[in-house]
Amino acid sequence: GYSAGWRSPQFLVGHTDFVRALAVGPNNVVYSGGKDRTVRAWSAVDGAHLRTLTGHTARVSALAVGIDGTVYSGSDGPEGSIRIWSGTDGRSLGTLEGYQGHSVLALAIADDGTLFSGGSDWAIRVWSGRELVRTLTGHTDCVRTLAIGTRGRLYSGSSDMSIRVWMVADGSQSHLATLGGHTGTVRSIVVGVDGTVYSGSDDATIRVWAADDGRLLRTLDDHTDIVKSLVVGADGTLFSGSFDATIRVWCCATGALRYTLPCMNSLIWAVAIGNDGKLYAHGTVSREIIVW
To answer: SS3 string of the chain?
Structure first.
């Protein structure tokens, strides 16, 4: 069963292999990408399958959606490309090349449309339209996660166990700080509405960092395995998906654990929050997306 206060889940069925990425668009559309090399679009209203975006020749490992609804999907090597799709009808708008056999592992989009991508080549690429304008270096292993922060900052998490903070709004795209403390790969970073930064890691912890100076505020250590995915709701609730087969629900203000959702012995790979507050998740037991 599921914790009190949570409705029974709905299941979105269509992928033919495991899902690895989820993203929510601005027009009540949820996108999923997976090992079957497709991106699927779903109605957030009733869960109906809207369309399937095809063209990738390797697993889809990262998704992001711009405020205009444009969809970006990144794939593993050897394809190692970023494909761009219309959020209106799903048609292909082009491909960003340059990974030369490396995997695209993370995508993030700033409000001005600048796209950031991280991958297995340890670098962060900065794209304006279809043009590569800069490459940010400094990590010493794969870049696994990217998050747009407040005050023009970008946060990157890596298999080198560090979080790097970049100033990207003023055009300088300079390295500001490195946040250390995790003892495993940093798998997920999310930024709260107040700028507070949350990071999940292979060390089974979530670390909470201050927006102003990057100091460690607290460590949430209730998970017992890799924390793979994090998302913050509009009401100040933090959701964490883990390989311990649970999704945990936290109060951002206090760090208190509110609920634990057991997920049928499934390692949770991705979580997302819809515009209407619905929680989306995917694990490894089935090819379905779970919706609460």
So the answer is: CCCCCCCCCEEECCCCCCEEEEEECCCCEEEEEECCCCEEEEECCCCCEEEEECCCCCCEEEEEECCCCCEEEEECCCCCCEEEECCCCCCEEEEECCCCCCCEEEEEECCCCCEEEEECCCCEEEEECCEEEEEECCCCCCEEEEEECCCCEEEEEECCCCEEEEECCCCCCEEEEEECCCCCCEEEEEECCCCCEEEEECCCCEEEECCCCCCEEEEECCCCCCEEEEEECCCCEEEEEECCCEEEEEECCCCCEEEEEECCCCCCCEEEECCCCCEEEECCCCCCEEEC
Q: What is the pLDDT of residues 142-179, one digit of tens each?
A: 999 999 999 999 999 999 999 999 999 877 789 999 99
pLDDT in tens, 32-79: 999 999 999 999 999 999 999 999 999 999 999 999 999 999 999 999
What is the C-alpha separation between 269 and 157, in angstroms, rounded?
16
The pLDDT value recorded for residue 6 is 56
Q: How many other CB atoms are found less than 10 A from the CB of residue 213?
A: 7
- The verdict on pTM exceeding 0.90 is yes
